[in-house]
Amino acid sequence: MNCVYFGTDGVRGPYGGPVVNERFAARLGAAAGLWLSRGLPSSGNRPPITIGRDTRVSGAALERALATGLASAGWRTVSLGILPTPAVACGVRDSGAPLGIVVTASHNPAGDNGFKLFGPGGRKLTEAQELEIEALLPADLPEYIPPVDPPAYAGEVLGAYITAATRLLPVGSLEGWDLVLDTANGATCLSSPAVFRCFGASMIGIGDFPDGRNINAGVGSEHPGKLAARVLAAGARIGIAHDGDGDRCVLCDERGVVLDGDEILTILATHALAGDRLAGNTLVVTVHSNGGVDAAVAAAGGRVLRTAVGDRHVAERMAATGATLGGESSGHVIFSEISPTGDGLVAALKVVEVMLETGQPLSELRRRLRKFPQASAAIAVHEKKPLESLPGLAAAIRSVESALGTGGRVLVRYSGTESKLRLLVEGSDEAAVRAGLARLEAAARAELVT
Hints:
- It contains 14 helices and 19 strands.
- By secondary structure, the protein is of the alpha/beta class.
- It folds into 4 domains: 152 residues, Alpha-D-Glucose-1,6-Bisphosphate, Chain A, domain 3; 87 residues, Alpha-D-Glucose-1,6-Bisphosphate, Chain A, domain 3; 109 residues, Alpha-D-Glucose-1,6-Bisphosphate, Chain A, domain 3; 75 residues, TATA-Binding Protein.
- A 7-stranded mixed beta sheet has the order 1-2-6-5-3-4-7, with helices on both faces.
- The longest helix is centred in the C-terminal third of the chain and has 19 residues.
């Protein structure tokens, strides 16, 4: 059984739509509170649930509604204010809170919003747990439950997050470094600049004036063009971009070339393998990562394990196998010894650490990954029809797979966070890959876009 509201990374959608609105937020809070209360006494002191949010203008109202629903189930809440998603996860882990919720739509446009839930230890809930919460969603809230006051603010969580990050590199280690930092007009606008200043870096900021409506608007990890241009213009040593809630990272080398999550993970994994510091000699990635990652890690003496798309699946596989490094090509990078979830700031700092230890520029380090030819596309759809009900697309998939042979692969899936069908083709021949993608895209549009 699949979740109705939860996708690969929480609940997400247009604010004011059928799901992401104050009424649903209150219902979700009530359901989460009922779920937490199972097996607990009806009275007694309970530790509060923590709530954080990104910079979207709709965040405060949704946070208030969540708190109302949680109060109806007997739970107090503490607001963490605006701060990155990984800071909320770390706060849950460090405080022993039973649950943490982030009001965010991550890399989506400002008009969207959503909810990410973190359980004990700061780990994302499993799909089974999300199904249990959905089953407890009330049809509505009792009318006699009044709105609660805004939750109390707890700014020390952000301070603790910044302090922990400043311990990852030596003090003053980036003096003389010029870097460009794009915080996507989002939740990292305060935290990431503060950390890099502690190391002595000279920074040029992009996307650092949030107004509630400009998060991810032409900036951030989804739009790295401005980052690359500014790096070249300034002669910076590195460019760093986060997404709206700070759990992703993409980088730009000194030549203006953008690095994705696969390149970041390959740099980190091969460097750790060279120093015998990669737990179990294992890197965990998703099925979306380029096959070149496997080849590079194998050549360095390690192995790659793959999971379904979603950093939650990566984290679960890491915990099951004892791996401590994993992530996604989108820029989610998990260092489980540092953070229980993807952390864009930590990822950037760990790559900078490799640059410091090797003395190599990022343009040289990125050569550790030789990507296999790959092409992808995303098609907006009004309805996510079951893929097995699309005979034309199924026939196209079989045809493309046959043409690619054993050295290629096809990945067709619906996005878990947007109304899109995602297509990926990988193989040994660039022309065959692009022809295969074109065939899949045509078949998909014929059956899904009318």
